[in-house]
């Protein structure tokens, strides 16, 4: 099974970082968040990736072109540019990088790159800007068990504020962090999909999270995989700092 990663957006809410690099290349603990996401999939046995590029896509291409030499010792003959890598330390990933257009929407990116997947074989899909400890293996098994076209991981967004425990007489008896039962679920990414979902995507301007998902739901082709564990997007500089702080503890929830 392959995983497709949407990595082409402008990342305007993280402009402090994305003025110089695409958001999936913003680093957490010295590694791009894209690398952390791929490592999580690899933990669950997925080693082939299709990455949908757009804004500053060349930055991502260069990262993977230079990846093996950067991670290893090597000898280079400058006259011939022949490169001999010693003690290769790179991961055993196969990565397909697809330029899906600068202004293409998320659905359009999927449709442009879907021919790089295995026909009639389910695939994983996620965004290149969020981390989680979701059990990919179990979500795939769930998808295969229900026989529908699409599975979305449903998560509770992290609360920016604590929750007051209040009795009926207005007496505050405690203060705690938000829990899953405090609010509704949202799309957390980490989809498992059948390639036939491409028929629900009209063109480059199709937003995956809008008409395609709505039509899948209306046609009874969408199921939700409930995830109550860690999930944290990286939409803002504040989110990045949260992920950095978790990494610096030495035990970040998503770490392989």
Can you tag this structure with a few keywords?
single chain, 256 residues, alpha/beta, Spore Coat Polysaccharide Biosynthesis Protein SpsA, Chain A, eight-stranded mixed beta sheet, two-stranded antiparallel ribbon, globular
Written overview of the protein:
This protein is α/β, with parallel strands linked by helices and 256 residues long. It has a single domain (2-154, 186-248), classed as Spore Coat Polysaccharide Biosynthesis Protein SpsA, Chain A. Helix content is 27%, strand content 27%. The protein is built from eight helices and 16 strands. The relative contact order is 0.19. The mean pLDDT is 91.
Strand-helix topology:
Layout: E1 2-7, H1 15-18, E2 27-28, E3 31-32, H2 33-43, E4 48-53, H3 57-65, H4 67-71, E5 73-77, E6 82-86, E7 94-99, H5 106-113, E8 123-127, E9 130-132, H6 136-146, E10 150-155, E11 163-166, E12 172-176, E13 186-187, E14 191-193, H7 211-218, E15 222-226, E16 231-233, H8 237-248
Parallel strand pairs: 1-4, 1-8, 4-7, 10-15
Antiparallel strand pairs: 2-3, 5-6, 8-14, 9-16, 10-13, 10-14, 11-12
Work out the strand percent: 25-35%
At the fold tier of CATH, the topology name is Spore Coat Polysaccharide Biosynthesis Protein SpsA, Chain A
Shape: globular
H and E order: EHEEHEHHEEEHEEHEEEEEHEEH
Number of helices: 8
Radius of gyration: 20 Å
Instruction: Tell me roughly what share of residues is in helical segments.
Output: 25-40%
Mean pLDDT: 91
Structural class: alpha/beta
Assigned CATH architecture: Alpha-Beta Complex
Please identify the top-level CATH class: Alpha Beta
Tell me how many strands there are. 16
What number of structural domains do the residues give? 1
Which regions contain 5 or more consecutive residues with pLDDT less than 50?
A: none
């Amino acid at each position: 099974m392959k995983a497709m990663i949407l990595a082409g957006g402008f990342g305007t809410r993280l402009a402090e970082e994305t003025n110089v690099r695409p958001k999936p290349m913003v680093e957490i603990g010295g590694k791009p968040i894209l690398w952390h996401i791929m490592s999580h999939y690899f933990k669950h046995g997925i080693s082939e990736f299709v990455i949908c590029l757009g804004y500053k896509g060349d930055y991502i291409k260069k990262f993977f072109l230079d990846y093996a030499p950067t991670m290893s010792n090597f000898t280079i003959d400058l006259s011939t540019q022949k490169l001999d890598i010693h003690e290769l330390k790179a991961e055993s990933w196969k990565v397909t990088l697809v330029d899906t257009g600068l202004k293409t929407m998320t659905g359009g990116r999927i449709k442009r790159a879907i021919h790089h997947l295995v026909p009639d074989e389910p695939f994983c899909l996620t965004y290149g800007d969020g981390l989680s400890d979701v059990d990919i293996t179990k979500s795939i098994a769930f998808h295969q068990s229900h026989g529908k076209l699409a599975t979305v991981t449903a998560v509770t967004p992290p609360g920016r504020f604590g929750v007051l425990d209040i009795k009926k007489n207005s007496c505050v008896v405690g203060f705690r962090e938000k829990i899953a039962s405090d609010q509704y679920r949202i799309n957390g990414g980490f989809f498992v999909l059948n390639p036939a979902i491409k028929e629900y995507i009209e063109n480059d301007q199709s937003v995956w999270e809008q008409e395609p998902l709505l039509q899948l739901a209306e046609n009874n082709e969408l199921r939700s995989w409930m995830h109550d564990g860690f999930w944290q997007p990286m939409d803002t500089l504040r989110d990045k700092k949260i992920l950095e702080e978790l990494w610096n503890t030495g035990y970040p929830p998503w770490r392989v």
